[in-house]
Each structure stands twice: as structure tokens, then as C-alpha cells.
Design a protein that fits this description.
The protein folds into two domains: 198 residues, Glycogen Phosphorylase B (Rossmann fold, 3-Layer(aba) Sandwich); 158 residues, Rossmann fold (3-Layer(aba) Sandwich), CATH 3.40.50.2000. Helices cover 35% and strands 19% of the residues. The protein has 14 helices and 13 strands. The protein is globular and about 65 Å long.
Length: 372
């Protein structure tokens, strides 16, 4: 039986694109390939991902709120445990996500099995200067993974990030580079056709994801919505937010802003279609945010929502569309204007979207099968 290993330091539950990929692989292997995922767990989530046909090993429990020594211990445990399981599995192909997951794949490729195929994906974009000034472990692992790029399958979430990455590593002529966008499952499109917009005649804004007062336009959006309580409302779904966000919203006390708390990824196609406009709030505090086309963009679109995004987000501009619904528009969060109600409302008949996870992971799986 062929063996394929995935190394993903961060807890899987934080990354819907990985969940979608694993589910696709589970439905595509037909039991002919042993797939093991080496990752971490966290108490922040009230559920834990399980996928029949996929072996998921939680090598340590990762808590960002832990002290420095505790985090250092977690890094150490994960890297040595992942190396142990890779050596035990002896896979024909390995895929790892982000530099922090690179140690075991690099060691296995260099010292154990030079013929192993390496697949690398980056959820985020890290600049060359950020690598140089960042965490010592990340710097060390990046110096090792540089030797993998020549032969590895390497992907980023969009073409802008990929071009920046190639320039950073001075490898503009590398050929095995790929784009792996963060699309939701195709099944969402059929599901949302049966979900109607809510009866509220006000414009419904919605936001799903992490919230920050420093790296996002949270304050500007909240003040705008609060000032238009007769025309719109805003529902927020988040299980990852800074304490000051809740304090600010509580002190603001806007009757038309509702903090809904956590929501599981699989519940989104039943929730998002009742609204009109999905919000993206990153204020461009880092290059990673500026050149990002986040998964929530495509989740909003597949559910038929129009989208507001900040003008600073270059990664979304290729999807900008002001003509057809669902539209995607850049806005200045310091000078927001409420759109016409009819223009803002979600359409009742949803157009089919090309943004499906299956279209992305089908091509990836073909490449993996060819290599094992």
C-alpha cells in the first residue's frame, strides 16, 4: 500500500482548506493509500476533526496563550515526534504546511529517503525580512527548506504571493510552482440554493473569523453600523478575538451589532445565505494581509453574498466585480457609505461559482499519485 504523510504544525481545525483537502483525499483514495496527518491539538475548539480513512495524530497540545518556555517545549515535542512517525511510516510522499512543519520532511529527504516526493504549501506569506528577524526556530527551518525547493512541489494561495515568494528566494525560474486557492466544497453550492435571505428589510452585514482591534478595521466598521441602526445590522461569528474587541463592542452597546460567538465550518452554508454583504476587515498591517485572498472571500461568494473588502488588500483585486451580483467591491473603511438597499441585497437565484475545493485538490492528488 502506498503511504502519504502530511505534516501540519497548527491545529487542523483552524484551517478549513486543509479540512476540505483531507475530506477530498479520503473520498478519492479508495483505501489504496495510507494517509497519516501529524498535527497538534488545542483546547480552544470544542470539537476535534475526525475523517474516516485518514489517520490524524495529535503530537502535542498547542496553546498560543502558553508561556515562552511552554511554547518552546511544544515546538520541541512536535518536531521530534513528527520525525519519529515519519521514520516509522516511511512514506513515498510527504506534504508539509508552513516552515514550522519542515524539520521532519527535510531530515527524511536528506538522510533517509532521497527519492521521497516533497509537497510544500504556505497558508501565509512570510517576507524575507520577517524570516530574518523572526523566531530563531523559523529562521533555522527556513534555511533548511531552501534546499528542498528545487525538487519540491511548492504552492501559495494566489499568484501575487507566489511571485513575491519566488523573488524572495531568488528562484524566479523554478518550474514546479503552483497556486492552491482556499475554495469551499462544491456541495455548498447545492445546499445554499435552499436557504433564503432572512425577512429583515435592513441590509445584513456578516463577518466570520478572527477579530482584532489592531490589524483590522473592526472599530471603523462597528462605528459605521452603529450610526445606521435604522438601515443595517451586523452579525459577527468568531471564536478567536482579542479581549479588547469584546470590551469595545460591549461599551459601544449598538443594538444592531450582534456577537454570535463560535460557529463550525460546516454550519456556514446554512448561516451565511441569510445575509447580504460579507465583510473582510484586514487593514494591511503586514504583507501577508495585503496580498491575501482569504478563504472567507470565496465562502461569501459561493453563498451568494456581496463582499466589501479594504482598498489595501491587493490580493482580492483580481476578483473585484462591480457589475454582477454577487459583487466584490473595495471600500475605504474610514469613509464608508451605505449602498442602495436593492443593490446590497443578496440575490435569490444564485449563479454557479467556479470556486470549488474539488477543482483544486483534484489536480494536487493527481500529482501526488504520480509521485508515489
Amino acid at each position: 500500500m502506498d503511504r502519504f504523510c502530511i505534516v501540519h504544525f497548527q491545529p487542523l481545525e483552524k484551517y478549513p482548506p486543509v479540512i476540505n483537502m483531507l475530506r477530498y483525499l479520503a473520498s478519492s483514495t479508495g483505501g489504496k493509500c495510507r494517509i497519516e496527518v501529524l498535527t497538534t491539538g488545542t483546547s480552544r475548539f470544542h470539537w476535534q476533526l475526525e475523517i474516516p480513512g485518514i489517520i490524524i495524530r495529535r503530537l502535542t497540545w498547542w496553546e498560543t496563550s502558553a508561556g515562552r518556555l511552554r511554547r518552546a517545549w511544544q515546538y520541541l515535542v512536535f518536531n521530534f515526534a513528527s520525525l519519529f512517525f515519519v521514520l516509522r511510516l516511511r512514506p513515498e510522499a510527504i506534504m508539509y504546511y508552513e516552515t514550522l512543519s519542515a524539520l521532519a520532511p527535510w531530515f527524511y529527504k536528506k538522510w533517509i529517503k532521497r527519492t521521497v516526493s516533497i509537497f510544500i504549501h504556505y497558508h501565509e506569506y512570510t517576507t524575507a525580512s520577517e524570516y530574518k528577524t523572526g523566531m530563531l526556530l523559523n529562521r533555522y527551518l527556513h534555511s533548511k527548506e531552501l534546499s528542498l525547493y528545487q525538487d519540491a512541489w511548492v504552492s501559495h494561495t494566489n499568484i501575487i504571493r507566489m511571485e513575491l515568494f519566488k523573488k524572495d528566494i531568488d528562484a524566479v525560474h523554478l518550474r514546479n510552482m503552483h497556486i492552491l486557492p482556499n475554495y469551499p466544497p462544491a456541495a455548498w453550492q447545492q445546499y445554499v440554493e435552499n436557504i433564503s435571505r432572512c425577512d429583515n428589510q435592513k441590509i445584513g452585514f456578516v463577518y466570520v473569523g478572527a477579530l482584532s482591534m489592531s490589524s483590522m478595521y473592526t472599530l471603523e466598521m462597528a462605528l459605521f453600523v452603529a450610526a445606521h441602526s435604522d438601515s443595517c445590522y451586523w452579525d459577527i461569528y468568531s471564536d478567536n478575538h482579542q479581549p479588547e474587541v469584546r470590551r469595545f463592542l460591549d461599551e459601544l452597546g449598538a443594538s444592531n451589532i450582534h456577537f454570535k460567538g463560535a460557529v463550525q465550518y460546516d454550519e456556514l452554508p446554512a448561516i451565511l445565505p441569510i445575509y447580504d454583504i460579507g465583510i473582510i476587515l484586514y487593514n494591511g498591517s503586514t504583507a501577508n494581509y495585503i496580498y491575501n485572498a482569504p478563504n472567507k472571500l470565496f465562502e461569501y461568494l459561493v453563498c451568494g453574498l456581496n463582499v466589501w473588502y479594504p482598498v489595501v488588500m491587493e490580493g482580492i483585486k483580481p476578483y473585484d466585480n462591480s457589475i454582477d451580483k454577487p459583487w466584490v467591491k473595495s471600500v475605504d473603511f474610514n469613509n464608508l457609505e451605505l449602498p442602495d438597499r436593492n443593490l446590497a441585497k443578496r440575490v435569490s437565484k444564485l449563479p454557479m461559482q467556479a470556486f470549488t475545493a474539488e477543482s483544486v485538490y483534484g489536480e494536487l492528488w493527481k500529482c501526488i499519485l504520480t509521485s508515489i
